[in-house]
């Protein structure tokens, strides 16, 4: 049945209106080229409603997408390649292959089974993860949408079957299956609402519009004979640009980004739209943006590779020693072995073919000693890190109730890196601040309005008040005091985004001000110069606004409260209710929109040209003060001096400012300019943006200054306390922001990154000829000042602007700049671009050779997040680009304290202990094979049954070490937060330095010697059983293996600080499992069990010496570790040792003063943070008293 919708909303929405004005504009030439249609970069031709025309040379991909790493054909080879990129796995593969030859000391299964288990488990994990991705892909590919099949008939079809050129109908709340050109919609003027959360995380609705020529095409029959051709750019990743044209009825029509509907966007508040498919599948912009994040590896993991190489060196060394011993033995002693027949010897023991025999022996022992390399290390670490990530994700203390978001480890590869951070590089807006604006103050006609205090001002007052109160009360007062009139506080709660308070402007009293006409113009500019969508809230009968910028939302709420309510937008007009009119009545004023001049980071302003109800053409402009001031007319600077002074005052209190201006335009001037503007707007090619900017400049001049706004971007909850705790953990904090220097400095004071008495080093670019040399001299001079400072408590803060930073980051100056920066207590970089953020991060990472962490919440932070060793994304209101590019995500900055100080500290120590223990237990096990092989005249014999060795790494010692890596805690989370200095154990690498690593290796060597020689010494020359039976190789091997199992499991028991029932089950369960295996294996057929037939119940079990030796060796082997740990705790205790002892004896409850004293001693001396501010004040007061 033919389906047509005659839903026609009679509202006429603006054809010139587009949200693109506030989008970041990317340079086309970075991704898609910048040339005209003659260039291959713009070679895509789309035959609308004729998908069958897209044959060669126009073979476009189908709409099926795949985000998997593998497919059925590539899974096995690619997965195996991934596994055997690891040098250890390559070694075990070669050993497994050689085990199929006669030279192997083991049966093939003893080498193949562990390798197959470990590699198989890793491949299974990869397969499971890829299958989950595949299932998600199938769900998306099998979605259905209505596609034109011809003759005006639309039928449902799967997304994966859509082709370039297809006509599509998408209904309300549906997702767009491909990148499409919007042809028409249920609205008469061809607009539609789009939600782009899946693209950039933004929940604000965007408005898209169709071309004028296709707006009237509606209903299924209207598309029956629709034919057109699109010529456009090739597929690229630029979400906010599109260059192309539509040829319809032999006429060309320029296509703009506002005409394009992107795949995975969602249709909202619109009943249906029609569109033609341009890019399908992996050509779509969202898929072009789905690039893999840069590969990052932790420092611990990199050092682990070096340890593997050391063990390989040890393996090769002892193999060569063994082969030399073997050569000596068969060369000089084989003739004395009367029981061997030299005439029937093989090449394995042939003195006459010594080289061949030694070569075979070398290969044999290389396989034999392979257990020095822990085969299950990689898979165990992967499993542990995944479980650690789940613990981070489920931490309720990092759950934000306001947004409903919790912390998320987006990768588990860097868990331990969280515990080794040295420098934090942070964005300001949306990271330290909320990115939720409150209209607080304004300047109109040179008069400052607004008496409410900003958070920066309140923090300053509290700081001054703290000088006259007891120091112990400072922190409580800092967090509990409130400034200002209580009524203001109530009003602030009632009206979101509006904290303004000044009776001179409220309730229409502004009409009594001397410059009431200018004040009216100020409100009119704010009510008209924007890109918002009004929505009537029927419950409150007031308007809310869909805005792209938080600033715009605050402005519109403010104008509503001042009596200028933006209420409606139509095709050509904006309507504003003016509550306070000279007539005394509320009127609705209409402003006809003529042009909208877009905002971008280059222009730093936006303008709207309107015609008011008396026919006057006006240009309203708002933007950065420096930009507006440069465009003022000579007679438009009446309020410039006062406004400049007030803007500086606003900046000093941490407020964000914009200047407002206007001009009146003559009709003849406007029409001449509009012709030129229209021509530039319809231009296709690389110069389009430059032409638009140039033409805009022509009209945005001769402005008259009206005033300025000041909105507050509030600090996020807990930011000062978090920074104070991180400072006490001896972490360095840099702030990289696009704000101007005054605002950044005052936010620094509010966060306690700056304080009174701290000497500020301001580096900025001066308007001189040799700017670069001047910057170099400023850096050199500042470094000399710091070098000459003799007061150890002196603190310096480096503040540098973007222009100066551009020179400071050049190759011949960057390390001099870095040296200065690292010698300062805090660093603030102002007016920096996204690229500069990434370059600063790279400089700190590569220059200091220490772990860097970057944290931000916006798309402009993606570069530094990906560049840093660890990237943290904040899931704020600027979108999800930062989160999607990050390694970890949190809801608010304050959660960074717990993520680092608790989880980072735990994960670093867990992984460090896990790796050290892994190498220890494999050295204990592997070297006993070497000793026995040497003891048996380098015969290449193994002392253990094959199945013993299969189970050692895979079953008997795997679960305890996993429990160590997942559940170990040296101290509780509360203690970590109370003693932030404990965190420095990670950056100092106290638990994974070469001293500790080599110490564990030495412990393994010592234990292996004790086990081997005690076993041989006790069992070699005496009867084993009561019937006089002596020991054979199987009995010695079983006793030795049992001793190893007990030794390594008791060792891990001594390492554990925090016990749960899981650790007990795994440790003691591993020992019990060994005996159960001996019992079960011994009762198998002798064909399978061989010499171990009934070995437990009939041979070693009834012999008391077996149990005695096992207990003796387990104790003796662990005495060195126990003694060393005891002496360390008594003579040179670490911080966590002292805390553990206090907590164990509950002295923190018995002697609270002692507990407080220990907390104070455990703090790292810091020159930033609120604690440093208080301590500095105490020193000043003490000096005054002493004088």
From TrEMBL:
Where do the catalytic residues lie? 427 (4-aspartylphosphate intermediate)
Which reaction(s) are listed as its catalytic activity? ATP + H2O + phospholipidSide 1 = ADP + phosphate + phospholipidSide 2
The processes (GO biological process) annotated in the record are:
phospholipid translocation
Coarse class of the protein's main subcellular location = membrane
Q: Which cofactor does it need?
A: Mg(2+)
Q: Quick one: which residues bind Mg(2+)?
A: 427, 429, 857, 861
Q: Which UniProt keywords apply?
A: ATP-binding, Magnesium, Membrane, Metal-binding, Nucleotide-binding, Translocase, Transmembrane, Transmembrane helix
Q: Which CDD domains match?
A: P-type_ATPase_APLT_Dnf-like (cd02073)
Q: Where are the transmembrane segments?
A: 87-103, 109-128, 307-334, 354-381, 914-932, 947-967, 997-1020, 1035-1056, 1065-1085, 1105-1123
Q: What would be one Pfam family of this protein?
A: Cation_ATPase
For the ligand (ATP), the binding residues are 427-429, 552, 599, 622, 656, 737-739, 831, 837, 860-861
**Residues annotated as domain P-type ATPase N-terminal:** 46-112
Report one GO cellular component: plasma membrane
Q: What is this protein called?
A: Phospholipid-transporting ATPase
Q: Which organism is it from?
A: Zostera marina
């Amino acid at each position: 049945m033919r389906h047509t919708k005659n839903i026609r909303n009679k509202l006429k929405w603006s054809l010139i209106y587009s949200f693109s004005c506030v989008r970041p504009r990317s340079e086309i030439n970075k991704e898609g080229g910048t040339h005209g249609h003659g260039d291959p970069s713009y070679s895509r031709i789309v035959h609308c409603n004729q998908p069958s025309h897209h044959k060669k040379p126009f073979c476009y991909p189908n709409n099926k997408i795949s985000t998997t790493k593998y497919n059925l054909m590539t899974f096995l080879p690619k997965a195996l390649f991934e596994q055997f990129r690891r040098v250890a796995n390559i070694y075990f593969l070669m050993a497994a292959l050689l085990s199929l030859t006669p030279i192997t000391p083991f049966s093939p299964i003893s080498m193949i089974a562990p390798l197959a288990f470990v590699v198989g488990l890793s491949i299974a994990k990869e397969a499971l993860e890829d299958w989950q991705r595949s299932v998600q892909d199938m769900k998306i590919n099998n979605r259905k949408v209505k596609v034109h099949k011809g003759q005006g008939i639309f039928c449902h079809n799967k997304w994966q079957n859509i082709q370039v050129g297809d006509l599509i109908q998408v209904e309300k709340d549906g997702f767009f299956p491909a990148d499409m050109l919007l042809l028409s919609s249920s609205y008469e003027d061809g607009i539609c609402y789009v939600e782009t959360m899946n693209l950039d995380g933004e929940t604000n609705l965007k408005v898209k519009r169709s071309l004028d020529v296709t707006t009237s095409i509606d209903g299924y029959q209207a598309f029956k004979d629709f034919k057109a051709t699109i010529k456009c750019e090739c597929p690229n990743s630029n979400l906010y640009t599109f260059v192309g044209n539509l040829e319809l009825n032999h006429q060309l029509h320029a296509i703009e980004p506002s005409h394009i509907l992107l795949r995975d966007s969602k249709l909202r508040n619109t009943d249906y739209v029609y569109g033609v498919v341009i890019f399908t599948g992996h050509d779509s912009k969202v898929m072009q943006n789905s690039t893999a994040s840069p590969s990052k590896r932790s420092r611990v993991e990199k050092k682990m590779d070096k340890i593997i190489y050391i063990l390989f060196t040890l393996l090769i060394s002892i193999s060569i020693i063994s082969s030399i011993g073997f050569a000596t033995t068969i060369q000089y002693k084989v003739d004395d072995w009367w029981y061997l027949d030299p005439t029937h010897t093989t090449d394995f023991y042939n003195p006459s073919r010594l080289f061949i025999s030694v070569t075979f022996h070398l290969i044999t022992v290389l396989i034999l000693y392979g257990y020095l390399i822990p085969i299950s290390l990689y898979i165990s670490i992967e499993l542990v890190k995944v479980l650690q990530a789940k613990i981070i994700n489920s931490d309720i203390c990092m759950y934000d109730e306001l947004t409903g978001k919790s912390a998320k480890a987006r990768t588990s590869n860097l868990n331990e890196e969280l515990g080794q951070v040295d420098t934090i590089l942070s964005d300001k807006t949306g990271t330290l601040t909320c990115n939720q604006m409150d209209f607080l103050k304004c300047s109109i006609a040179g008069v400052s309005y607004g008496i409410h205090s900003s958070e920066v001002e309140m923090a300053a007052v509290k700081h001054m008040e703290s000088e006259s109160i007891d120091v112990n009360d400072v922190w409580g007062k800092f967090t509990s005091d409130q400034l200002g009139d209580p009524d203001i506080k109530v009003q602030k709660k009632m009206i979101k985004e509006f904290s303004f308070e000044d009776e001179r402007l409220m309730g229409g009293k502004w009409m009594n001000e001397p410059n009431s006409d200018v004040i009216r113009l100020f409100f009119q500019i704010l009510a008209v110069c924007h890109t918002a969508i009004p929505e009537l809230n029927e419950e409150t009968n007031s308007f809310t606004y869909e805005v792209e910028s938080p600033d715009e939302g605050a402005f519109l709420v403010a104008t509503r409260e001042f009596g200028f309510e933006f209420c409606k937008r139509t095709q050509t007009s904006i309507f504003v209710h003016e509550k306070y009119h000279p007539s005394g009545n509320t009127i609705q004023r209409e402003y006809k929109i003529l042009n909208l001049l877009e905002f971008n980071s280059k222009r730093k302003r936006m303008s709207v040209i309107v015609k008011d109800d008396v026919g006057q053409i006006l240009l309203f402009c708002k933007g950065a003060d420096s930009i507006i001031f440069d465009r003022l007319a000579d007679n438009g600077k009446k309020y410039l001096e006062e406004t400049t002074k007030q803007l500086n005052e606003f900046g000093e209190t941490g407020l964000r400012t914009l200047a407002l201006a206007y001009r009146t335009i003559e009709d003849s001037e406007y029409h001449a300019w509009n012709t030129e503007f229209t021509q530039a707007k319809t231009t296709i090619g690389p110069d389009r943006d430059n032409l638009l900017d140039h033409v805009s400049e022509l009209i945005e001049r001769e402005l008259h200054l009206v005033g300025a706004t000041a909105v507050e971007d509030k600090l996020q909850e807990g930011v000062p306390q978090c920074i104070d705790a991180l400072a006490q953990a001896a972490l360095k904090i840099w702030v990289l922001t696009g704000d101007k220097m005054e605002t950044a400095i005052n936010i620094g004071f509010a966060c306690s990154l700056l304080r009174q008495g701290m000497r500020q080093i301001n580096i900025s670019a001066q308007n001189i000829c040799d700017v670069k040399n001047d910057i170099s001299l400023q850096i050199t001079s500042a470094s000399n000042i710091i070098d000459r400072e003799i007061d150890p408590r002196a603190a310096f803060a480096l503040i540098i602007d973007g222009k100066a930073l551009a020179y400071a980051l050049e190759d011949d100056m960057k390390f001099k700049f870095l040296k200065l920066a690292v010698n300062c207590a805090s660093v603030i970089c102002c007016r920096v671009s996204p690229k500069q953020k990434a370059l600063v991060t790279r400089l700190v990472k590569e220059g200091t050779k220490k772990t860097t962490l970057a944290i931000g919440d916006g798309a402009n932070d993606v570069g530094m997040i990906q560049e840093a060793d660890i990237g943290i994304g904040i899931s704020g209101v600027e979108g999800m680009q930062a989160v999607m590019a990050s390694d970890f995500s949190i809801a608010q900055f304050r959660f960074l304290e717990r993520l680092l100080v608790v989880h980072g500290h735990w994960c670093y120590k867990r992984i460090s202990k896990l790796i050290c223990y892994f190498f220890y237990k494999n050295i204990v096990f592997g070297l006993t094979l070497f000793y026995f092989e040497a003891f048996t005249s380098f015969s290449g014999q193994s002392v253990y049954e094959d199945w013993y060795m299969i189970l050692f790494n895979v079953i008997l010692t795997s679960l305890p070490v996993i429990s160590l890596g997942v559940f170990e805690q040296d101290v509780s989370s509360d203690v970590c937060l109370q003693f932030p200095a404990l965190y420095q154990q990670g950056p100092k690498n106290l638990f994974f330095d070469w001293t500790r690593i080599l110490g564990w290796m030495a412990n393994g060597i010592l234990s292996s010697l004790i086990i081997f020689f005690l076993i041989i010494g006790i069992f070699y020359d005496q009867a084993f059983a009561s019937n006089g039976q002596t020991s054979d190789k199987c009995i010695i091997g079983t006793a030795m293996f049992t001793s190893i199992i007990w030794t390594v499991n008791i060792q891990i028991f001594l390492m554990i600080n925090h016990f749960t029932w899981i650790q007990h089950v795994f440790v003691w369960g591993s020992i019990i499992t060994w005996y159960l295996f001996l019992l079960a294996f011994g009762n198998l057929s002798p064909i399978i069990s061989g010499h171990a037939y009934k070995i437990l119940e009939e041979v070693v079990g009834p012999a008391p010496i077996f149990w005695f030796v096992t207990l003796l060796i387990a104790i003796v082997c662990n005495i060195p570790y126990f003694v060393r740990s005891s002496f360390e705790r008594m003579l040179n205790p670490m911080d966590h040792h002292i805390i553990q002892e206090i907590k164990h004896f509950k002295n923190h409850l018995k002697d609270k003063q002692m507990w407080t004293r220990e907390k104070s001693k455990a703090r790292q001396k810091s020159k930033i943070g609120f604690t440093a501010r208080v301590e500095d004040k105490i020193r000043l007061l003490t000096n005054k008293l002493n004088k």
